[in-house]
Design a protein that fits this description.
- With about 475 residues, the protein is mostly helical.
- The chain has a domain at about 260-485.
- It has helices spanning about 5-25, 30-50, 65-85, 100-115, 120-140, 145-175, 180-190, 195, 200-215, 225-230, 235-260, 265-290, 295-320, 325-355, 370, 375-385, 395-405, 410-435, 450-470, 470-480.
- α3 (about 65-85) runs antiparallel to α4 (about 100-115).
- The two termini are about 25 Å apart.
């Protein structure tokens, strides 16, 4: 076993332990931020250095070390870096628990890194629970009524989703006798089609996997937890949930459904159309329910459901496409990178504004363009990107993923997606209108720390670069998606 391939995860786990111990002996809590960021940078640097190599799987083939896993590891580490930077203006609300806060963010990131690399059902479940339990605690960190309610709701519904997922895994293991994804695929491919069709246990197991993982990506009808949890959680954790947790869910779905259920073609075709239907429903429900929202965090919660729908367009294209066509897979990866910059930028701007206003109501953002023009401009750019308008990254992300579906003849799904993008413009641009055209009740400036401004600058820079010159990021997404070529 080559432990050198596991150094990024070891570095992150060690950083979390150091942060907890340091919190006991150090009065200046800024050291916790610096140590946490140092650990993330070290883990990220090692991960990037591993890119493009050909490495064996580790821990008895339970964890892969391929470009797909490395792509997501860098994404998770980058998001955690932005979350910790943006939290410097927010942690005053729970100043006694800063060490636990940063450590849990690091442990959640570790769990997500393992989720992206896992190639065994047991490893997938353990990694998912490591991330989930950390997030359950983080959601309730404010300890007020809304935060406690959000944490309890997330815990209970998450436990049900985990049970459903575990039951699905048990059925698949019972049918195939294997937990390794590649071995499951070999068993399924060796069976005649009629045997598979006459095996309701296996098919039910696949459906339960879709349901359990659908909760993690906030897809309809597994989305009930989203608005309340997004509203009640600390805003940096809401941002983390909306980006990293969703990306981790898609990483598992892509690896599991390709590696275990990619063949025979008829099976892949059927789960592809399942995701197509879920995509159409999620887009429509998320966008329609976002329209009447008065709280910006709840609005972005329903927006997150709609964004999951757009991403599932890529999953549908992945299921329907031939084995050598990776446009759907690479489209999902590029979309996730764009969405990470966009949604993180939006929430970081919201942290700065809401800290000053002590309110998340959209109407209270009135006149923000006059009070804090740079913050309002950054939030405007991110909202335009969420709509899918040029020159922001969201335009290229949607173009890429819709093109993948068009090439597979799923014109009906692309039409639904485009209509939903137009609908979403109403509630996104409503916030822009309130900020720039509304009257301001106060002339006080909105202050923020240098760390938060740096995080916001990095997000806005990413949104513009991926929108204007997306070629390099697209090539990285394609390299990561090559594992899906048989």
């Amino acid at each position: 076993m080559n432990l050198s391939l596991f150094i990024p995860e070891i570095a992150l786990a060690a950083t979390a332990i150091i942060v907890i111990l340091l919190d006991l002996f150090v009065g200046q809590k800024r050291w916790l931020v610096q140590v946490s960021i140092s650990g993330l940078v070290i883990a990220g640097g090692i991960t990037i250095a591993m890119w493009g190599g050909s490495y064996p799987a580790i821990f008895s083939n339970m964890l892969a070390v391929d470009n797909f896993a490395l792509f997501f590891k860098v994404l998770f580490l980058g998001v955690a870096f932005l979350v910790i930077l943006s939290s410097t203006d927010y942690v005053g609300k729970f100043s006694r628990f800063q060490g636990e806060y940063y450590a849990l963010v690091l442990l959640a990131t570790l769990g997500m890194m393992l989720m992206a690399a896992a190639t065994n059902l047991i490893a997938i479940y353990i990694a998912l629970e490591l991330a989930s339990i950390s997030l359950y605690a983080l959601v309730g960190f404010l300890k007020d009524k809304k935060s406690s309610e959000a944490s309890l709701k997330y815990l209970l519904l998450g436990a049900v989703a985990s049970a459903v997922l575990l039951y699905g895994m048990a059925l698949i293991f019972g049918f195939t006798g294997k937990t390794q994804l590649g071995e499951i695929a070999q068993v399924i491919q060796a069976l005649p089609p009629m045997t598979l069709l006459a095996s309701p246990g296996l098919l039910l197991g696949i459906v339960l996997l879709v349901a359990g993982l659908g909760f993690k990506i906030a897809a309809v009808p597994f989305h009930m937890w989203v608005p309340d949890v997004y509203e009640g959680a600390p805003t940096p954790i809401t941002a983390y949930l909306s980006v990293a947790s969703k990306a981790a869910g898609f990483a598992i779905i892509m690896r599991v459904f390709f590696s275990a259920f990619g063949l025979p073609d008829w099976l892949s075709l059927n789960w592809g159309y399942i995701f197509a239907v879920l995509a159409a429903i999620s887009m429509t429900v998320g966008n329609i329910l976002a329209i009447p929202q008065a709280n910006i965090k709840r609005m972005l919660g329903y927006s997150s459901i709609a964004q999951a729908g757009y991403l599932m367009v890529g999953l549908a294209a992945m299921g329907v496409a031939s084995a050598d066509n990776i446009l759907g897979q690479s489209g999902v990866l590029f979309f996730l990178a764009s969405y990470a910059f966009t949604n993180m930028g939006a929430f970081i701007a919201i942290i700065a504004i809401s800290n000053k206003l002590d309110s998340d109501l959209i109407d209270d953002y009135s006149g923000m363009g006059k009070r804090a023009p740079l913050l309002a401009l950054a939030l405007t750019l991110c909202l335009i990107s969420l709509v899918g308008m040029p020159p922001a990254a969201g335009f290229m992300a949607k173009f890429y993923i819709f093109n993948a579906a068009m090439q597979q003849g799923m014109i009906w799904l692309v039409i639904i997606a485009v209509i939903n993008s137009v609908i979403s413009a109403y509630y996104y641009l409503r916030v822009v209108k309130v900020m720039w055209l509304g009257d301001t009740a106060s002339v006080g400036k909105v202050s923020s720390s240098g760390a938060l401004r740096l995080a916001l600058f990095l997000c806005c820079l990413g949104v513009l670069l991926l929108g204007i010159i997306p070629g390099s990021a697209m090539r990285l997404a394609q390299l990561a998606a090559y594992i899906f070529v048989y």
